Amino acid sequence: MEALIPVINKLQDVFNTVGADAIQLPQIVVVGAQSSGKSSVLESLVGRSFLPRGTGIVTRRPLVLQLVYTTRDDNQYRSAETGTLDLDEWAQFLHKKEIYTDFDRVRREVDEETARIAGHNKGVSNDPIRLRIYSDKVVNLTVVDLPGLTKVPVGEQPEDIEMQIRDMVLSYIGNPNSIILAVSPANMDMAVSESLKLAKEVDPDGRRTLAVITKLDLMDAGTDAIDILCGRVIPVKLGIIGVVNRSQQDIIDNKSINDSLRDEAAFLQRKYPTLANRNGTPYLAKTLNRLLMHHIRDCLPELKTRVTMMMSQFQTLLNSYGDDVKDKAQTLLQIITKFNAAYCSTIEGTARNIETTELCGGARICYIFHETFGRTLDSIHPLAGLTQMDILTAIRNATGPRPALFVPEVSFELLVKRQIRRLEEPSLRCIELVHEEMQRIIQFCGTEVQQEMLRFPKLHEKIVDVVTQLLRRRLPPTNAMIENLVAVELAYINTKHPDFIRDASMVSNITNEEEKARNIPVRRAHEYDMRDQPKDLMVDGYMDPIMRQNMTRYQPDQQYGRMPPNDLMIVGNSKEAANSNWFSSLIAGPRPEANAPSKEMSRESSPNTTPTHQLLAESAFQAIANPCTGVEVEQTIPPQPEGGILSPQKPVNLLPEVPIQQTRKLTERETKDCEVIERLIKSYFYIVRKSIQDMVPKAVMHFLVNYVKDNLQSELVKHLYRTDEIDSFLSESPEIALRRKEAAEMLKALQNANVIIGEIRETHMW
Questions:
Q1: If 369 and its partner were Cys, which of 170, 234, 437, 697 is the partner (CB 3.0–4.6 Å)?
Q2: Measured between alpha carbons, how far is residue 543 from residues 198, 523, 527, 534, 538 in Å?
Q3: Average pLDDT of span 554-568
């Protein structure tokens, strides 16, 4: 198992070039408060004084210390080139190839390297210093010495120095493959130990925490650390080991490490005789070596798996960045072909990497056609925006000045065209949605192409511009086609459509039956016999139809119990009656001054006839019946000029204005007419909607989607394959070049690590 620690040291060297965080290697991390004796413990483990010492914060950068055990006969780490064949011990920094045999120079190099990065005035840095020491007096260990935990900033330290150091410590001890060496001075209460507090945060079970109690010789008189060392105060699973450090005076006096170790052993035998064999620096070194070897053994299988997995990931990443461009014209054509294939396969649904989180490409276009567009058309009601009064008004306007005997076909055409036009807007919106999706496909048309796009940003911008322009040019003809589809439906209302003719025939049959029922002749008792009409109004025994119609207006209506108006009854002396014929007496009636009360009563009893209309009718018929007899009009009519009522000089409007909107209850016939029109509109609208719902997706696919698929590659070649711009298009992004370099270095490190781990035999692990 001794061979495991050098393996980890080799892995640390390998991953040093790509960053220590690349893979979590097993190591020992020393954590403690400032001036708690961390550096002294490390010097005792090495047996040499090589670390900066002093008051205040001395360790200001992490120091990764690799201790390698080597004998004079072991040529594994010795070579003539480096001059280490005859050396007993030497040191070497990873950032320098120089071999150090004088450990005072090692201390100065540590100071200089710390000041180079962290400054000269108490600043700290997270960039580690890597030092390897070869000796036959050490055990194989990998230890990380961290800056001491502090509270108050000094010198040029920032205000958040406490949080900076805390975060740095947590980044190292948070590695699940690390062993935490929590250092606390014996002259301080263990309950306030910052190192144990941080260790408990990341290792609550204590399975990888070892406590070290320093400065046992500096405890107050009358006190001892027996309870602490036995774990009675704060138990630690891996144990608690006490050591005695060199004092500052010993350092000033250049007291050697060997003398310090002898004094430590003597102190433990005198003060803690029962615990002496389980405390002290030599026991600490053996314990750390044993813990690290077992920890490496436990972590190694997972480490091998992790290295293999990372190799595969970085190989894939490096392949995605592509190789260096040699033939730029060929590379450009390859990228154009890849993009065209990826774009078309995304539309057709044959892409290798199918999206599982959302619809995209052709699937989304299908959803737009059959879900979004289809539901929108289905939600449009055939009679939306039409009221019965609108339909009735259209029927009346279509008949002109003639009363309608039947429902005019023109009104149906006008109304159904108005409803068909409502289908145009959602159809055009469908084109916009498909256009947006085809624009969106550019960004999601294959990971391989996307890497090429990231690698060549100018080429990416030009490709996006070409596709966008192509899609934009296809919008007008597609919109025009959809508008033509609607215009074609509006141009000719095919009432002989096979699906429409059945509803039309059914409506026609119902209408005919109603008309027959309404036109059955019924002889009324009060109807006049033509033989009883006055002879002077008849020509050759027949009365003029207009005269007959006008006379029937004033016949008694027995059905509703109404009598003729009083002012139309014959009143006067017998001479006037004898000289007048029957029709003139019926129409003209008595003079206003003779029978005013009866006139007033007639107005009240005939609410459907206004006084003005009554007088006009009386005057007109009197003039026809008795041309020579004048008719007086009520005084309520304004006085007329000399020309009379029909004078063309100043016509007088005696009719009320036509109301804009009539709100009244429809008659039975009007209701039937509206129902007929509504039924016909619904039937024909459904036919047109079905046709539009079928034709719009076909038109969009032909004029937009399929056209772009068929002409995309030719458009890209026409606009991109230009010799004067190829170099500009294939200028690689600096960011991608840097990423490729980092990925190549990481892949090389992982391959080396895999070789190193592969050299370990199963026998080495037990």
A1: 697
A2: 124, 19, 15, 9, 4
A3: 42
